[in-house]
Structure formats: structure tokens, C-alpha cells
Predict the 3D structure of the following.
Amino acid sequence: MPKELCFVIMGFGKKKDPDSNRTIDLDETYKKIIKPAVIACNYNCVRADEITDSGLIDRSMFALLMNAELVIADITTYNPNAIYELGVRHAVRPYSTIIIKEEGGNIPFDFNHNRTLTYKHLGSEISASEAKRCIRDLKNLINTVTQSPLIDSPMYSFIPKVQRPLLSEEDFAEIIGELRNKENTIYSLMESAKDFMAEKKFTEAALKWKKLSELVDNDLFFIQQYALCVYKSKSPTQLVALTNALNIMERIKPFNDAESLGIAGAINKNLWKETQELAFLNIAIENYKKGWNLFTDYYTGENYAHCLEQKALRENEVNLKNYYRVEAQLTRQCIIDIVLPMLSVPKDELEDIMWRSATLSNCYLALGDTENANIFEKKFLAASPVSWEIDTFTTSKNELIELSCQ
């Protein structure tokens, strides 16, 4: 291993921020800010997914936390592993630890006396101007830490005479071993999975997400994406794929986040379409309703309304039929009231603009406002969705048109 080593502590992929309920793609931070700055400062940049050590990731991780000349900890979304690893680093190394975080939300009390570099994340991406600014600031901070190391660990600040544990260079080299080949890193596997999804090769994408879910035990995002791609693969049959996807989601029950509730709702909704068993529609309504009520998540809200409309068509009792229809209308109007102001965001936040526009288009269409439905459909298409995203929107649109004719 090269002597000058920077170990990066952070989550992988898209994670939900508990303060803002925004989904943030942490790989964008690594790719556009951290890695370029670290490499420019002549460090070897290593993230946890780039360690081999015969699969003993934890052993290598502790060795890196002890001996890496520099550690950068991104605590955005307060990923539990990242927070834990930062605590270990502070316990075993008095200095050369940099904390960075997306600018939204508060910095935890235990870290707020440290200098923290903040950056603006748009959710799905980081703007070119922001990346350029942050690379410059992070490089300056790395150079300062390297040239004039000061104690940045709270423990060593409060107990300056404490003796830190030491690991010899020989033991360090033996534990770490070789870096993973690039094609085996978590980051590279995710990029490959995303490429397959963009090409609608969901069977191939599912295999990548499956491998990722096995590499990182109980990672919510990997399991969610695995289930999503399995059900979209329709392989070997639509019914089998949906059943398999439901079994995958069982691993992360109970569903306590909007993404899991949305995927579980979608699987059950499609199982209902496939079998016409109302039990599946009822479960879908339950999942979507929970996501809408707990998180005011417009995706689950829109699907909650859509499933209620389907339920109304199959209800014989007049009062219940009217209740389902009115609840669906009120939900869609509430979604419009929430989502419409959200469009006044930076122009380059394309993914959020895309799905917000799709949601508004469907809600206006369901409420009979075809003029606004067409306006926001154009905004959705202008955000350059990939083919499977267009298919998803078109399916919902056609179902709403069919519903209006009944």
C-alpha cells in the first residue's frame, strides 16, 4: 500500500436524509468532490468497498481507521456505519480527520466543535459549479491538515495525555492486502446495475443488486433496488417475478421508510393486476397510505389515490364507493398543493423535477384538468427520462384515461 493513504468514510448509493426526508445520492459526492480532491493532493483514495482482505472488510476497516494518514468522513444522512467509524477514528487517531456534510440539517453535538466542510447537494446530483468550489476548499483543507496537523479528535482534545493504540506498518500491510479490482467495487457494481436499468435489462440489473445486497448485509437501498428490478424483470413470468420480489422485501420488514413502502405497494398493486385478488389491492393501499400519511411522500400519495379509485370501481356499497373517490380527489389536490411549489428549485436538479412533473401531470389528469396535465407531461419529457421511466409514466397515464371512461 502507498504510504499516503486517505480512507473515506461514508454511505453508498442513495440514502434518505432523516432531517429533510430527501433522497441523496452519496456516490455523486464521492465521484464529484471527494475523490478528485484527494487524488489532486497526491493521496491514494480508498473507500470501504475498495478493500479486499479475503472478505474480512471489518478487519481492514479498523486497520485503515488506525493507520490511514488521512480520513474524510461524510456524515450526510447520518449513515450509522459512517458515524460509528468516525467515532472509532477519533478514538484511535488524534488528528488528520476531516468531516464533511451536505448543508441541510444540523450537525450532531458530538461533532459540532470540529471544522466541517459543507456542500450543496441537489439530491440526484451536484452542480458543476458547486463541485468545483468544494474540490478547491477540500484540497485546501487537506493541505492544511497535512502540513500543520492539529488535534481534531474530541477525545484527545479533552484527554491530551491518553496514549493512542498503534499498529505496525508490517501488520497494517498484511491486514489490508491488495485493493479490489475496479470491477468488483461496490461503486462499480452499482454503476453497472444502473446502466442495465437504463437499458431495461432488469434481470441483469437484479443480479448486480443481489450481489451488492450480499456484500453489504442488510443495506436497505441494495435490497430495495434488488426487489424493484426483480419485479420489473417479469422473469421467468410476471407472477413469479412479483412473488420473488415480495419475498425479497420481507427481509426488511417492517417498512418504516417511504421508499420501502412505495416498492412494497407497487409489488402488491401489480400482484392485484395479475391475479385480480382484492387482498393484494388492500395491502397496496395500506402501504401507500402509510407512506403518504407518515412522510407526505408524493409518490406514495399518488399511488394511494390511484388504488382508491380502483377500489371504488369494485365497491358495491354506495357510501364506501363515494368515500374512496372523494379521498382520492382530496389526496391528489393535496399533492398538487405540496409539489407545485417544489418546482421552484435549481434548474439542474433534473431527477426531482422529472418525477415531480410526472406526478403533477397525473394528478391534474385524474382531476380532469387536461391543460395542466399536458404542460407537466412536457416538463417530464424535457428532463430526459430513460425509457423505463417513460414506460412507467405512460402506464399510469393510460390507466387514468381508462379510469375516466368507466
